[in-house]
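Problem 12. The chain below contains 248 residues. Write out its predicted structure in token notation.
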Amino acid sequence: MRTLYTLSYSPWSERARWALEYHGVEFVERHHVPMLGEPFLRLWTRRARGVVTVPLLVDGDLVLGDSYLIARWADSNSRSGRETLFPEAAQGTILTWNERAGIALQSARALVIAALGGDEGALLESVPRALRALPGARATARLGLAHFRRKYALDEKTESAHLEALELAVEQLREDLGARKYLVGNRFTYADILGATLLQAVVPVADEFLRLGPATRRAWTRSDLAERSRDLLEWRDQIYRAFRNTQS
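Solution.
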């Protein structure tokens, strides 16, 4: 069965999940456990060295380990009859925003990891629910955070530098969107998915679309930036209501 390995709260995973569901592509979702699940990712990707991460789509010989590539594949294998997320006129904007959002979310990941480390509730929520009552659950979570820091070199910049990178991308989104409903022309594209999921690092979208524990939601929230981004958050919520399935 086609399987998508994810971190449920990750904007990268949300992009892949959104594109697959938008196009009616059936899949089973499996939650990846950081550090503990990495050997399985290496097995699927046949990579003994280097960084392996989620989202990861596995379907027989097909192995895609990048949200952009997964979305392109979903677009080419649509079962829904919906319009392409990658129209020719949107290619430049999509590539620009794929890069911009990637840079900003790397910084957002560092901010979230720092917040998790200082919040016992959020730290425990990062452990799979079935394991939270076990002795050593918090210690395992802290090992996972340390693994993330090493894996993505998250300590190379200061917190203020990470926040500045996120703020820059948010301001670029406001400028590019202007008074329009969509980032490209008069239709929904993958560029809008990129912009909407970028804002996950400002304030997570409502639980009806992406369920998070309260402490995890707090770790992903940048309150001051959120206050200055009400217009963009309202746009994001409209995009979700129009084009994203709610969680049952």
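Discussion. The longest strand covers residues 3-6. Students who got a different answer should revisit the alignment rule from Section 12.3.
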